[in-house]
Records
---
Amino acid sequence: MDYIPITENDREEMLKQIGARSINDLIMDLKPPLNEKLNLTEPMSELELVEHMRNLSQKNMIMKYFIGAGSYNHYIPSAVNHLLMRGEFLTGYTPYQAEMSQGTLHAMYEFQSFICLLTGMDVSNASMYEGSSALAEAVLLSSSYKGRNCIFVKDGLNPQYFEVLKTYCEGADLRLVNEIDENTACVIAQNPDFYGNIENLQYISEQAHKAGALFIVCVVEPTSLAILEPPGNYGADIVVGEGQSFGIPVNFGGPYLGFIGVKDFLLKKIPGRICGMTTDSKGNKGFVLTFQAREQHIRRERATSNITTNVALMALASTIYLALMGRSGLINVAKLSYTRAHLLHDKLENTGFKALNKKPFYNEFIMKAPVGSCKKILSNLLKNGILGGLDLGEDKILICCTEMNKVQDIESFVSVIKET
Amino acid sequence: MKLIFEYEEQATNHVPDVVDDKHQGEEEDIVVGLPRDVIRKELPLPNVSEINVVRHYTNISRLNFGVDLGFYPLGSCTMKYNPKINEDVARLDGFKDLHPLSNESCIQGSLQVMWELEQDLKKITGMDAFSLQPAAGAQGELLGVMITKAYYKQKNEKRTKIMIPDSSHGTNPATATMCKFETITIPSNSRGNIDIYKFKESLKDDVALVMLTNPNTLGLFEEKILEISDLAHTNGTLMYCDGANMNALLGITRPSDQGFDMIHLNLHKSFSTPHGGGGPGAGTLGVKSFLSDYLPLPRVVVQHNNNFALDYTKRKSVGMVRYCYGNFGMLVRAYCYIKSWGKNIRSVSENAILNANYLLSLLKDDYELPYNRRCAHEFVLSSKKFGEKSALNIAKRLLDYGFHPPTIYFPLIVREALMIEPTETESKETLDRFASALKSIANEIKENPDIVKGSPYTKSVGRLDEVAAARKPNLRWTVPSQSDGKKNSIKDASSKKNSVSNSNSSNNQ
């Protein structure tokens, strides 16, 4: 299968116009030449390709997920995908030519607005790759703004996020430290944290600000923002995180949706693209990319970040998702996730699991299975088509519920455990 | 077009109300179940009916332009056709609904896709190992520079500089800065390639890395690439290829044979995953074997029983650069693209180069060609003979002719630059039409310059005021001050008060 519309006749005419005898004339410069065909497979027709890919996809096994840990299985209204598939959105690039890209820009402006409304921040950019690298970029921003190189992370950050943060810090010569002091650029807290705990973080915000550091709140399960206080209300200077829960499938880990919102005073330090509203010569409203002097294509080595391609289509997905769900739908999702998780939590406590969350939790919780039984329990659940949570070792399991976990599935979960 | 926040209040239910749930008593308590000081008082999001949402986004999509609508010769971005079948495949339930932290026995299909894709990318570039983790080209670069830093740290060598040509993408120097390297800019010569004398002068023992795009952003292949690589390697310096322009090289020559030690590939360019209005992409990084231990974990491996596994063995890995394994959905699409072409993939680059040279030959008399050479898959013209801001004016006028304009004012070393990349998926007829549009605009500039300066005329908006956008920033919608606060209360939301039938009571229009 190929996607080339040039015919043999065209090719001859084109070569003649160029003044070349053959294609080989045109590629002489490209050295050293590869003298044989690449050892790739035989080309596949669309029919063969579909069959091949369907077979591969069926080698995966989709379970009833009681696992989150950074990827959340939420319901996605059908219209999201229908709209995303429109070629006008799907096959455009970054809206550098604003007058021809008002659709993407309009949606970007709405996305930025949604992020601000949910987080309580003043400014949002148009998206980051995904949550963990977005957090790392927020840390680079803090260090550059404060001229300090120490980073404090509160307990309870998703361990993968912590790994990514370590990688970026190593690259940028930043240090992860255990104390907040006058060298601290920022203090990071995830809320709800990796174990699902919800906390009023005002006291940490005060500690951070007292030391002259920025306070970063990381949100990995953003449906929680439907019912929880926006981090801007408890002192966050930056809210950063993962938007996958808003209309994006779990996708085996990507593509996801990083977001970052900041208070006004950090506007000129924020990485990535920002869309702003303006007017044309006749006074018509329109949208453009703005504050581009922060970005790599203009500022080069003095840019606020190297980020270029982000995840515009995922930001669009979440914008459409939030529009479709609306305030009522999103609150329902949050309340269902919360109730289902608490229902399962209480039932498991009755079967001999030990509750380990010391604080109120949202839709994830950590429990200790009876000694030595964790592996067996998870494996029995798997046999029943249930992925029962993330094994954290020492019989501790991190369990998650969303609106997708029906009450009867919760009951089967519990009955499998009773049988184990 | 109004904003989504400005529609009348009317909800459509997509998930059950909590009150429909069997366990009624509990959800009533949900808000009081949590301490008051963590609960939000109001959620100022709109409730919009589904038909209004669908019409809203369908209508704004019509203000956009994409490869599906017409020619999009945006240089350096490789805006080729994105096969529809790859969209369907990436959305198969078995791929899209797979949780990344599932047991290894449940993810064999996805691991196989990743493993095979890595093998194919190795063959195409000649590299020995690939990480599929980076989310975009710039993150691939970042990983490459992190590996460079770790490599010299391990060798206990202090190297603090990265050499970058003046024609490079802005991401290269921006990435160097993120890892605290200093940038040395190497000037280009009259052939549009690196000035080899200046290169030799700057190549001291503190240079860690040479970052090149090849063919470069002028669409010109680095004629002395083998000499440059030799000089760098003799100096103990690593060679990095910004693979943004791989669409010129598929099956023709391999970056490893040109002496590169690392390359990132933008799967959303050469391998046809859609650009999506600015991502998601994928920026896989390939390295030679002596650097493979530095790649992020986990690595996908094949076991003796032919099962695939994730290997977390820490050797010298710089660590993860993102959550999980990469933009898997984009990896599936690129995998499909490579499998469709198979061993004939060289046709892609041959036709991309043919199309670029053909278009160049049609346009070089009306515009200036700063470097008089045949090009690879793209070329750069200058409109400086038409005066200041002429590239911008030409770009805006092209909108009226129904084309997406080329990249303008890049690379920075060409004044009034128009960077044109037609790609292989365009027909001769399209190229002819585009050339005549540019010729016609060249005439307009001579005969009626105001037409061009005032353009565009046919879009939903005229030329937008970017200066005003930055001077008076309006970056988000805010809740109007006269808004009824009660409407947004989170307590009401799950009750039937907000269902469609009662929407009028909470309508504040």
Note: The mean pLDDT of chain A is 96.
---
Amino acid sequence: MSSTVETATEIRPFHVDVPEEDLDDLRRRIAATRWPEQETVRDQSQGVQLATIQALARYWATDYDLRRFEARLNAVPQFMTEIDGLDIHFIHVRSPHENALPLIITHGWPGSVIEMLNVVGPLSDPTAHGGDAEDAFDVVAPSMPGYGFSAKPTGTGWDPVHIARAWIELMRRLGYTRFVAQGGDWGAQITDVMGAEAPPELLGIHSNMPGTVPPEVSKTLAAGPEPSGLSPDESRAWKQLNFVFTKGIGYATEMNLRPQTLYGLADSPVALAAWMLDHDARSYEDIAAAFDGHPVGNLTRDEVLDNITMTWLTNTGISSGRLYWENTLGFFDVKGATVPAAVSVFPREMYQAPRSWTEQAYPNLIYFNEVDEGNHFAAWQEPEIYTNELRAAFRSLRDERRSS
Amino acid sequence: MSTTVEAATEIRPFHLEFSEEQIDDLRRRIAATRWTSKELDESQGVELATLQALARYWANDYDFGRVEARLNALPQFRTEIDGLDIHFIHVRSKHENALPLIITHGWPGSVIEMLEVIGPLTDPTAHGGDAGDAFDVVIPSLPGYGFSAEPTEVGWDPAHTAEAWAELMDRLGYTRYVAQGGDQGAGVTDAMARMAPEGLVGVHFNFLDAAPRELLMAALNLRLAFSEEDRAQFGKFTGIFMRGYLTEMGEHPQTIGYSIVDSPVGLAAWMLDHDADSYEKISRAFLDGTPSGGLTRDHVLDNITLYWLTGTGTSAARLYWENSRAVTAAIKHSPPHVSLPVAFTVFPGEIFQAPRHWVKKAYHNLTYFNEVDKGGHFAAWEEPELFASEMRAAFRSLRDERRSS
């Protein structure tokens, strides 16, 4: 509890400092893992495969530098500030360039600010990364409540709408009077909600997992049959989402209904790692390939373990899952954003949003592009493509900004 | 691998022994549990206070020798069926003309659920019954559960297990027997009834496994007139889908498998979160020391300890994956109707109380239907005497036929 308004709205520098004892405990637990026998199939259809998770555990306990994520986070300016009674952790990198466009990026589950570490440089310092000074952003990347170093809510109510409102407050507190917002996964939901709340400071949004599914189509997902009259793009999207809702939703259902029951995530590092690897079929394939020695893009073993290690050491496996319990919005449904919106479609995302649905979902669509590489974790796996997309997506809003 | 046909069909006595090392490791892990923060709402799953009370009792007061002692007190066997070692308890009644009965447990259960019904069923005269009520009891462990072997290939769905149970009864020399089940055991027993192997003369259920298919179809086609009571029960029926375990184990049992094999409290929480009624009762047993019937702290921990020490959390979970494939297949090729006599008991704490006409819709030859006044999803475990008296009443008419034939 804060004693005065001043301390409550204060922005305090933050530095990660992990006790050696916690690392020893983690190492001990990984080494003491009791394994189940191998799955009875030869593919990922029963979940995370034993060979993959054992390769991960081996690398985690023996070769991985457990202080990597700490060093990486401490290399960027981090802060804490209390919003609605909860300490919010965030990275805040101001661009050296004048007129940089302030941008708030929201991660998702099972992600964290770790996903964004490789885009902070290119976005805030474009001239050092093949861009122009006019492409510069001031970057704010907060940890969602219950994730990473943000505090864990002790009461209910921190749903995506509440988080969206907290982010608007955060940007105001940082003194930004005009900014843009971006996200994928939960970050996309929160960004869409910000776009629907449409505070005057919000110039526009960008999503790499847009909510576009028309309500009458959404109703048929998992229930079937596929509605007639869909275009080829729409039909593909319907089939992809129908797969998600019939074969790839177990983790979300469990966290939506009974997140607390997942005690193993707090007690077993391997249980946590497996749970975090099992997000969607394609990102799992890519991460499994990384532990097989063939990373796809930037989704390397070290990157994946940075995220898992931070989640373990902050003991946020269950507190992060509670967001699914809080949520009442349809993951892929239209959220009603009215501000200028930009969408990038990544080819290995859970579904490829058709332009037709996207145009209906975002009445003020200023940018739509389909890129060549990248899965659900767009910023993490393809930081260059992601950066270029953000530069292109928001360019027109900068012009408006200057002319206004 | 067996070398000869004789060896394969051989029935070997079984005796279990856990090493002190395994038990020490379990104690150490419970003591070293890293806990999560308290739930924000009681609807979020197994409550921290309940699970911590369980962990405290498990590590400090629970007698780890119990599972071994209770199971070894009974005649246990193993026999290989379709390449898989099947563990079972087999207690013959001292009474002549005892009716052979195969009882199948479910998830998150095991043969532990059935231990207290063995006496009343096999030795009725010592438990307020007549010699004419006696059963020979066969209680197998499902594939991947307890001391049955873990399948290493796909395909051990309820229908496959049903075939294996028919083979088991045949191998035991039974030419005329009945079968019983709740939960996944109802699925296996339902499959047995549909395939109607020679020798099976009737079945009893304490859970309407046939409901998801028949009932949903009926609801969709509006062939069932939904009364107010129907609607109330249909609402409760949909409560099955208010737990995530069903979806998670149906889709990715291996993923949750790492949690329940490596963390004792991870396993215990996962097993406590089956349905609202049993969770409340088990929770009360640990928090207030007021168990409901046989659902005592010791009995609940016997079952969890068996899962832990056999390391079968993941292999048990795979039954849901198999089941989910089987259900999908059954939509395309519906299985034969049940023409055998079916008996059904409705327990008031079960997830839903199937009205008689729902059961009749699923099983046309309904020879016994009764609603009892206590007991929940784990009927045999919670109310062993009531369960035994239901078995006696449910199968009485089949004995008469037997005598007259």
Note: Confidence is low (pLDDT under 50) at residues 1-5 of chain A.
